[in-house]
Amino acid sequence: MNSSLIQDPRSEAIPVQVEVRQGEPATDSVDRSKAYLHAGHLFVSSTPTAITTILGSCVAVSLWDPERRIGGLNHYLLPNRVGSGLSSPRFGNVAIARLVDDIIALGASPRRLQAKIFGGACILAAFDGARTHLGQSNVQIAREILNRREVPIAAQAVGGQRGRKVIFHTDEGVAWVKLL
Amino acid sequence: MGQAKILLVDDSKTTLFMEEMILKADYALVRASDGEEALVVAAAERPDLVLLDVVMPKMDGFEVCRRLRDSEACKETPIIMVTTRGEAENMEKGYANGCSDYIAKPFKSLELLTKVKNYLEQ
Fold first, then answer.
1. Number of domains observed in the structure of chain B
2. Taking residues B29-43, what's their average pLDDT?
3. Chain A CB contacts of B115 below 8 Å
4. Among A6-15, A162-171, B67-76, the least confident range
5. pLDDT reported for residue A12
6. Contacts of B93 by beta carbon, 8 Å cutoff, 6+ apart
């Protein structure tokens, strides 16, 4: 399998430093369950699972405990729950807090957690960077909350003008990212 | 400068009505109820953004998206595909045909408004 450092040349609004694997995973010996993650949901598992999701301006955050080999992923649409709206993982601040809580409840240690951030594209060639777009706001809230919870960000594949298909392996913490 | 114009494309009257309720205060709206009509309306109205259903009679949303991208009227127009939960797994095909983003039904009004504003208020 190829592991590489990826620079997305189209990502000017948000610097991209990515340590993930490009494309889609080859078949390997691990027998993984498969799950598709819809917007506004999250999934954590202590058994090997390949979680797939597709992102445009939405963002997904993965968490992984390398010792217990427990991993999880969320997928949110908007950065912050506003006003008295329903506390829903469709919002980044809720989705990330709930992902942290759920993975710890499954036995992960908060001290060992590693995060990765994906998505947050703005697919407009004419975007001139003069204004913060939705994708940037979605990425920023992830960085702020993870920093506040002292969870290190191991890799990011964010920004740019293209959607992404993400496949996250909960047992090995590897994320495969395909630009769409 | 006048209101931005959005083309709503959906064969479901309920979905069209819901989208209209959410967007009509801020945007000028034009409508099409199938893929072929969408191409005609897009050429005539030159919308600033298209909200495009995936499953429709005559021509599906992916094909409409591809044809809009090939057209003079919409080659750079943001196209947001509106999917059901089951269709969201096929959105790789939506991006391959040139869509800008997608939103899955059911969605909240704030989510649709925020996505639309993101592409129109540059």
1. 1
2. 97
3. 57, 77, 134
4. A6-15
5. 37
6. B62
Task: For residue A90, give both structure tokens.
Answer: 């469709």
Residue A64 tokens read as 């992984």
Global ipTM: 0.88
CB B73 within 8 A of CB B112: no
Question: For the domain that residue B60 is a member of, what is the CATH number?
Answer: 3.40.50.2300
CB neighbour list of residue B82: distance below 8 Å, 6 or more residues apart: B10, B15, B19, B51, B52, B53, B54, B61, B102, B103, B104, B105
Q: Do the chains contact at B104 and A165, CB–CB below 8 Å? A: no
Q: Which CATH number fits domain A4-27+38-179: 1.10.10.10, 3.30.830.10, 3.30.70.1520, 3.30.1330.200?
A: 3.30.1330.200
In order of A45, A56, A156, the CA distances from B106 in angstroms are: 26, 17, 29
pLDDT digits (tens, 9 = 90+) for B71-105: 999 999 999 999 987 888 889 999 999 999 999 99
Tell me, yes or no, if A123 comes closer than 8 A to chain B by beta carbon.
yes
A52 has a chain B CB within 8 A of its CB: yes
Longest dimension (CA), chain A: 48
Sign of dihedral through CA atoms A43, A49, A54, A59?
positive
Mean pLDDT of all residues belonging to chain A: 84
Residue A106 scores a pLDDT above 70: yes
